[in-house]
Each structure stands twice: as C-alpha cells, then as structure tokens.
Amino acid sequence: xxxxxxxxxxxxxxxxxxxxxxxxxxxxxxxxxxxxxxxxxxxxxxxxxxxxxxxxxxxxxxxxxxxxxxxx
Length: 72
Hints:
Shape: globular
Number of helices: 1
Distance between the termini: 39 Å
Domain HicB-like antitoxin of toxin-antitoxin system: 4-66
Keywords: Plasmid
Pfam family, one: HicB_lk_antitox
Number of strands: 3
CATH class: Alpha Beta
Helix content: 25-40%
C-alpha cells in the first residue's frame, strides 16, 4: 500500500479538479469531494500500472509534509 497526496481545486462551474503532485500529469475531476477522491484513486492506480509496465520507479508520498501559509 502506498500513500499519495492529492489536491482538490474547486472549479467555478462546480466540481473539483484533482492533481497528484508526485505523479506529474496525473489529473482528474469529480462533481463533488467524494467523487473527486474516487476518481483520484482510479487515476493513481492507472498511472502506477503504466509506471510498472515501463519499469519506472514509483514515487512515495508517505513521508511528505504539507503546510499551508497565509501571506498578507
């Protein structure tokens, strides 16, 4: 089992675009947070299958630390 950080970006027209920072180009969308998470899981699984098939290393986000800063 591996851990990947996902970022949900709310869209003006509704729904969320989801990015996976450690998997370049791994992007998906969902109409709400629940669907966005499910779609992200599927996108990550497919991305990892492609990495494995091509013999590329699989990144691991389990030791990542994320912080938010507010700047005035």
